[in-house]
Structures are given as C-alpha cells and as structure tokens.
C-alpha cells in the first residue's frame, strides 16, 4: 500500500511508519519537522496541516491507498485535511480515542463498540465544548466521515503505551523506580494491586490499523486489549524489573490517598480509584477489533521496550512534567504520614 501519515515522527505516527515500512508499504509522512525525526525510508513532506497551501502542495500529483491521521484534535482542522485529501486517497484512518464516547468520559457505564459518540459538529473549532478532548475527537470523526463517507476507519484507542511515548505516564513510573535508592527507596503504590487494567502497546495499534486497511475494513473500533492484560501491581513490578530497581512499593489504600488530596491519574499516572474501575477505560473490551484480528503482545514487552528507549537518558527531575507524577519530597511526606498512622487508613 501507499500510505500517507499525517504526523509520523512521534509516538503513534512513528509506530505506524515503522510498522508500515516493516510490512513493505510505501510511506509518506507529513509534519512540520519541529517535534520529532522522520524514520529513514519514508518520503518526508514538510508542512503544517493548518495551512491550506501546505495541504495543496502535499496532495499535488500524489495519490495514496490510505491516509493515517495521527494528530487530529480539532474537527475544523481535520475536516480541512480530509477535504484536501478526498480526491487523493482511497481510505482515511483516523486515530480517535475511547474518550469520544460520553459514557466512558463521564464514567456512567462500560462502553462498547456500539456506544454512541459525543454529539459534536464536524466543523467545530478548538473552543467548542470548552475544548473537551473527547467531544472534539467525536467531531473529528464526523469531519472525516463528511469527506470520506463509507471509506473511514476510526480507531477509538484506550490508553496507549510503549516506546517513544510522549505522554510519559509509563516513563514517570519507570523513572520513579530508577531513582528508588536511599531515602527514596520506598515508593508510594496506590490502592489495590489486584485491580485489572487494559493498556495497549502502540505497535499493536499500528499493526492492527494497517492490517485493517490492507483488508479493506471500515467503521469504528474500540482498540483495547480484549482481556484485562495487567494489574496495577504488575505494572509497578514490571517497572521495577525493567529498571533493575531496588524499589520497595508501599501499598497505600485509596481512602488515605483521597484524604491527602493526591490526584488520581495525574499525581499517580494511570491510577484511578478502584470504585471507578468498572466504569472507566479498564472495563471496555474490544470485541470488534478482536474479531478483526487485533493481537496484543505481553505487557512485560511493552514496559521493557519503553525502558530501552529512555534508559540512557539523564535522570530527569521528578515529576517529569505537570500532571505526571508526585515530586519526591511530596511522596516522602505522604509516606511519613502513612507510617505515622501505622500503615492503615483511618477507620
Ligand atoms: N496516548 C494515548 O494514550 C492515546 C489514547 C487514545 C488516543 N490517542 C491519540 O493518539 C494520537 C497520537 O498521539 P501522539 O502523541 O502520537 O501524537 P501527537 O503529539 O498528537 O502528534 C505528533 C505528530 O504530529 C505532527 N504534527 C503536530 N502538529 C502538526 C501540524 N499542525 N501539521 C503537521 N503535523 C503536525 C508532529 O510533528 P511536528 O510537530 O514536527 O509537526 C508529530 O509527528 C492522537 O490523535 C491522540 O488523540 C492517544
């Protein structure tokens, strides 16, 4: 296949480029050349998807079997790309998100492949619905449908991890384990280690998407591991194993976490209180994707390969970024408060 990747130099787009090249496809990438490096072997076209002239230059004299849009967040922008590409590509794969399903985003009930998406117009701008990520992703799907009716593939991905991740939630835990020495050897581990999760490897998303394109599939697919593929306890254990850390996880119950104003997901990446687990992303299977051949590698491989990418980088200051982990000093205070209570939540 001839494949155009909008993006292509970072995380999800990079994985699509790598897997497409490995499968023998011809790959064009389209990005501004500011935030990543294109893989050797691709035809790299420089340009900004928000600039009409750049899109015109991209499509001039070119035709692809498929577009893979990995960096669409605003319906109006995605619609402009789809309009420009409609006579120049056969199929449009849009990397959407499970967050486009309101029942998921609002934690109302488990979602499935037939859950309705948010109601967002296809020409919405970035401020629509206060810029809500999931609402806008639903609008982006509609913007693509408008120009590629019956020729669209929407991948509604859950939480994606793996090598070259830019969200850095897994990196936050890997680095935390890496620095677990001396006074920081004890690591605050939240809630119940047995809570099951579904975390999908970026390479499995890419292989699945490319296989769907090759098979001529269209429609919307939740892209999540069909079964829960790890637990929070295993996540931390895998990070300890990958980094060769001497970390000692201290399991702190969720009542204590809530009382001390520690924020799920941001202070403790990928962690949500157990009470919400059945209504959040961990509950959503992917029967349609499984039937279409989605295969997921072991979670252990995902953690190991993600670590290989960052292991030789200098240890960053923790937390990695706003919204990605606790500072070491705050964590130490929390563990001292936990110890003072005798290692148990208030009754
Ligand atoms: N991470 C998750 O858990 C998760 C879950 C579900 C869905 N998703 C979806 O996965 C997708 C991919 O995310 P990501 O983190 O890999 O990529 P990203 O950060 O959204 O995109 C980065 C890529 O897009 C290019 N790009 C950005 N702005 C551009 C522009 N105006 N014109 C042309 N190219 C542009 C970047 O290159 P330049 O900056 O050099 O232009 C880079 O190649 C997103 O659509 C996200 O909604 C992610």
From TrEMBL:
InterPro entries: Epimerase_deHydtase (IPR001509), NAD(P)-bd_dom_sf (IPR036291). It comes from the Bacteria. Residues 3-206 form the NAD-dependent epimerase/dehydratase domain. This is NAD-dependent epimerase/dehydratase domain-containing protein. The lineage of its organism: Bacteria, Bacillati, Actinomycetota, Actinomycetes, Kitasatosporales.
